[in-house]
Amino acid sequence: MDRSFALTPGKRVLYLTKDPDLVRRQLAGTLTLTMNDVKAEDLLDDINTDAMTPAWVCFDFDPKDIAKNACVVARRDIPGKEGKQFDIPLDGAARHIDGLLREIQKNLFDRAKKFRDANMRTADTYDEFKRMIEEPGFIWAHWDGTRATEDRIQEETKATIRVIPFDGPKEPGKCMVTGQPSERRVVFARAY
After folding, report:
1. Which of 94, 97, 104, 130 reaches 20 to 30 Å from 61, CA-CA?
2. Residues 74 and 133 in one domain
3. Count of C-beta atoms within a 10 Å radius of residue 15
4. Residue 108 falls inside a structural domain
5. Nearest to residue 177, comparing CAs of 125, 122, 134, 121?
């Protein structure tokens, strides 16, 4: 059986063998293995891809998949088997992965926006603010725009201003701490 496949010129495959010396020699460039040099049972099968590939998409090149000129793509935003896609042809993998990364980005954005929206609250008084800040989330509140008030809020509650929405709606009011005029609400939160 022919166990060969084509790589981009100048590229090579790193075979993660159970023999650490073979891996070291491959990394050092003193050993070049081919599929004919290894058997499936010689390869590691319990690799922690989280430690090796800090990315949103991981690839699994099993010898059986390579023989089919295919790979397995695993999404890290969907854990387990549900996030894996099998038999992705290598010649279309880049296009497939590009679409997948765009979908993952949209999913992460939508998830963050949903979390943000579900955890936004509004405080009109400083006492109300101090109660609300004990729970994770974001609080809209009026602030007089001074550094002294901002420092006082941080010292007393450990909360800091996260967003001053200059292009957002102006909602004149009074600072929750000093009672001084405020042009708009700002977003406060604690670091957790």
Report:
1. 104
2. no
3. 21
4. no
5. 125
